[in-house]
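A common beginner's mistake is to predict each chain separately and then try to dock the pieces by hand. The better habit, illustrated here, is to supply every component at once so that their relative placement is modeled jointly.
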Amino acid sequence: MNLLPLFFALPLAGAFLIPILSKIWRGFSDLIANSITTILLFLSFYSLNLFEEGEVIIYKMGGWPPPLGITMVYDHLSALIVISIAIVVFAASIFSIRYLEHFTGRVKFYTLFMLITAGMMGVAITGDIFNLFVFVEIASISSYALVAFGIEKEELEAAFKYMVMGEIASLFLLFAIALLYGRASTLNMADLANTLSVAGRDQLFWFVAAILLFSFAIKSALFPFHSWLPDAHPSAPAPVSAILSGIFVKVLGVYALIRLSFNVFGLTPQNSPIFFHILIFLGLVSVFFGGIIASRQRDYKRLLAYSTIAQIGFIMVGIGIGNFWAIAGGLFHILAHAITKSLLFLTSGAVVYATGKRDLEELAGLGKTMGITAWSYRLATLSLSGLPPLVGFFPKLFIIIGACQAKLYWLAILLAILSVFTLAYLLKIIRKVYFTTKEVSTPETPFSMRLSMLFLVILMILFGFGFQGLLNSLIIPATKVLLNGTGYGRAILGG
Amino acid sequence: MFFFITTLILIIIGLYAIVTKTNLIRIIIGFAILEYAINFFFALVGFKKGALAPIITQVDGPKNFVDPIPQALVLTAIVIGLATTALMLSFAIKLYQKHKTFDITKIKELKG
Amino acid sequence: MSLIVRKIASIIGGFIFLYGIYIVLHGHLTPGGGFAGGVIIAGSFVLFVLAYGTDESGEKKRFFIASIFESIGALFFIGIAFFGLFLGSLFFLNFLPQGLPLKLLSAGTIPLSNIAISIKVGAGLFSIFLALAATKYFLEE
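With all components supplied together, the output reads:
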């Protein structure tokens, strides 16, 4: 497919076109950014028609054959991630048009926005481990700058803290790549998979696996390594919070971890139970503490940030159980949580835009005047806590089914209880912000903000009612890619 | 072997500086040490005793080169390191502008 | 800076710039290339700014020009990659004739990419220097 490099080349080109063209006319920055995210959205859905289940699209950069040159690999797992990124980025870029009125430096914002998009897209479709590191760094560095975008005391402190944690993770990723290169003398992920499965598992193999787990646990903010997230995500402007919480941690943390551990290292629950038990443990602790701490917050965005930690925990538990339905649930939750959590952060942006406040004690009675924001928030709450017709119900159901199939009944019951607990802390915002009868006269949010929120609400309902189609066309093929294990290497290199 | 132990020591020094120092600039120096240690390690991975630097000066020249790929990758990693160091320094400068101090124990607006 | 520094800088600066261009143009034959050459080119500009000093308006002007050149360099690089996509249906395809090995005009698009990278790196590094040097204006306040 000739269109594959467009996924990261278009935003990259946009990032450098915006600073030049916006010197001619300031409106170009909005125009270019929004048209590129729209094109990405169409491309990502269109790309699903181009290949069948079990097929892999291989794109050779510059025409070099796979073990030598950089390859781009597009299978259903990549497609799932690319679609999630495209949806969140599209909604966030529409939302940014009016939200940025509070900020100076619209051009710089859109440049960083395009770079973070390019980095995430690159991570999702690359088939080369060093290229993965480069894209991780492109996305990370632009995210540090975006977190500090307000350049006030809190933002700078949060960004510095985030950067210290994130850079340690990135440098250890580089260290692991160096060890892998010394071991296998190749950087192509398919070739690595073949070499590692032939070479067998010695201490170095497990050492590299441990470093990678540590690195991606920081990037995905699992519980003991989470401390940067509740500061960094609320400090960013709301559309960026939506990207960071909605999709960024999943692409850089969860996706990179599962791609490397399943497809390159060939780990399965049968041959490496300790690794998967660690994942279940970290995930469960994240769900538990994320939920507990979230319920004690009094800041709109911090509460949502802690909720992100809890939901990432759900994904990790699903991956850690490791049978078909649990992994399908985990992958489905990546998409479902991307839609709902970015919607929740966009409502926080609408509230901040209208009132300028984030403290739950000071906000009250917005349910009447900001009707669409309030209803978006309510629907997203119901979806995330698992009300049946909405999209958030199915992933948790699948994870619980998977836990039952793996004979982990205590885990299934615990997950069901913790899933209801999600409703408890998210309802706190409804009760404080939208439900009280106090009369206030805040204006309804501008049209473009309502449009982006409505887009996500419609997707949430559509994917909920049409989950069967989504499951068959995207989630199940993506799960089969993961369960194929090191067959990934044979599928790309042949033989 | 001596060089690998050196990289290990350098990595530990870098991590120690990042974890224990309270001055923003010293933390950034710690990052620089950690980054260079890992780059050094990566360059060592491609080393071969007695081999030449991978520069082709004639068409049918000698062929026993060290592995050039780690060197190219380290160059990329250095470029990325330049960007991170510059961004970190600019955060440090902005924090100094707001707080008039580089001491992170005195910069505590957030709860964590 | 003193007269001696200024005089020496004005003599040496041009040679440093030329050396940077040499490194860039021979990037596909010898060690060096776009990044190393770009750093040297940026170094020559940094030398001039250090020797002759600058004020706030001059710094803003330089920053503006450097940021434009940075974007142009990056667009040039992506443009080369897109040309490969349009001409040969592969991103980053080396669509130019390869030439003889070890000659200056060889290796297809690689020298062009080196030039693009050197513009990007030179302008980018110089603007990083300007941004960090600009802190002296608010620290004195």
